[in-house]
User: What shape does this take?
Amino acid sequence: MKKLYIFALFIGASLFVSCDSYIDITPKGALTIDSAYTYYELVSNPMRCYYPSSFAYLSDDLWAKESKIIGYESVSADGINFTFNETADRTILPDNNLYENMYSDILRCNLIIDNIDKAPGSDEVRMLAKAEARTLRAFNHFLAVNTYAKAYNPATAATDGGICIMNHYDLESSPAKSTVAQTYDFIINELEEAIPNLQKTTQNIYHPNAAFGWALLAKAYLFHRDWEKARDAALKSLEINNVLIDYNVINDNGGVARYREYADDHNPEVLSYMWMGSGWTAEAATFYAYGVISPELIALYGENDLRYSLFFRQSGTTISNYYDVGSGAAIWTPATTTARFTYMTVGMRTAETYLILAEAEARMNELDKSMAYINHLRKHRIAGGYELPVPSNQHDMMETVIAERRKELLFGFHRFFDLKRYNIEPEYAKTITRTFPVVTKTVESKTYTLQQDSKLYVIPFPRSATDKNPHLTQN
Assistant: This one.
């Protein structure tokens, strides 16, 4: 068997060169992939990063500094998205490597899956490495299909254009685009087959464990509208990890500035570490651009909600370059980084698992159970008066779930994905309006509207991808 050698920048570069570049060459500082265990180690990747500029402002939860939007309404992704400009050509805009990062990680997984059986080592290590790689491969396909395609709709998914399913290590292939239905079938099958071979406790936090596998499967089922299966998978995940941090403890001990029990990689709620931005060290900088929440979202938080009071500010000289004081919005406290509290914007947390469980129960009209899970989460987030009464009908219970998802699952892909999937249901669809600017008086303030069926919700594939693969047509 030929040995494979992986450069430090292997995955990013591998999209643009031939496979021969990695065979029988030993570059300085390279990792030699010549055993099952080293393939297993390759699964661990602290730099799974996804920059949100392609979609961040297609949401009712975020706000922007006015100077980064005014004058850019047709020429930048932020300007186009914030003003809901459907006439602009988004295909010419860079996506900050969002698509490339997804498929680079898929390629990394495929390398492991397709080659590990040729390497010496134990069957147990091979089975584990392949299960972990398949889990992460499913995760990236899930992000991709929900970014670049329509939300799963049972009535149209079989014909709605999806994404390219990449399930083999081939640097030169030009795969046909699958449908949304085919992509979900692939994701669910991947997870169902991988999870039995995942460990409850892994070698390090960057290897996916069984709690994450079950939670991701629950999320896939939820988006696929399989309510009972989503519930059952969420319960399986919580059997392994049901920890919720009590924000009251943080608050009573001086807030995140002083109480740093959950800094770095010590947040027990986190099921998978993936970052918003170009890496965990840069995520703090990303918060300056995409960490400002809207007045509408602020209004959802009560005065005792520690999810707001511990992490957001509306004044202070240190934030003036990134935030318009007086806009009614609020900014994530710049000093609150992974060195003080690891929030986790893209990866999954137990809090999300509880919310999946609450929604699944609400969908099956189990209102008491749904609210019990919501109140259990709120108990760990609210400084007194956390308990909400059980609504009298399913619609109101779902509205409660949706509101809690907005307050709990900030940033990353969460609200963007939720808006897309709820918009196929008339009872939960939402037309978003925003009036802008608020502070700048030299520019006329206008009201912008994002319709429920707007084409903006489908992010275009980058030209670097469509130019390389003629089968990859825009959805």
